[in-house]
Design brief:
142 residues, alpha+beta, 2,3-Dihydroxybiphenyl 1,2-Dioxygenase, domain 1, 3 helices, globular, binds zinc ion
């Protein structure tokens, strides 16, 4: 765990598990029919070149994402088909955390946060840092 001297950030919870799909509107009804989960937020995320639908579960969410010009996500779907794409953890102090990770030599996709879905600050940690899992850091914009 993080030790004293790095108190300016905190990992809080899983914000969402993202599922890559070819068509958000085709897949959302499956989640409704099988698990009773409804879409509360539906948006095009310009910064990520994706479409997203958010399906809350308690304190967390399933996020369905499909590419809207996002080449990485298109390639993911071509190579691996639809399925779990990334896990997002909610953090406090995303800039401090990114600085800490960078200084620790953890490979990052984003060294600075971008504005993602729901207007939150987001940044991705490279999957090679975490055993093959793409992890997104999310902080609510205030
Ligand atoms: Zn996400």
């Amino acid at each position: 765990m993080f030790t004293a001297g790095s108190p300016s950030f905190r990992i809080k919870k899983i914000d969402h598990v993202a599922v890559a799909v070819a068509d958000v509107d085709a897949v959302a009804p499956l989640w409704q029919a099988a698990l009773g989960l409804g879409v509360t937020v539906r948006e095009v995320v310009a910064s990520q070149k994706t479409e997203a639908a958010l399906l809350p579960i308690g304190d967390s969410n399933i996020e369905l994402i499909s590419p809207k010009g996002n080449v990485g996500l298109e390639k993911f779907l071509e190579k691996r088909g639809p399925g779990i794409h990334h896990v997002a953890v909610e953090v406090e102090g995303i800039e401090a955390l990114l600085a800490f990770l960078k200084q620790a030599g953890i490979p990052l996709i984003d060294e600075e946060p971008r504005i993602g879905a729901r207007g939150h600050k987001v940044a991705f940690v490279h999957p090679k840092a975490l055993g093959g899992v793409l992890v997104e850091l999310v902080e609510e914009a205030h």
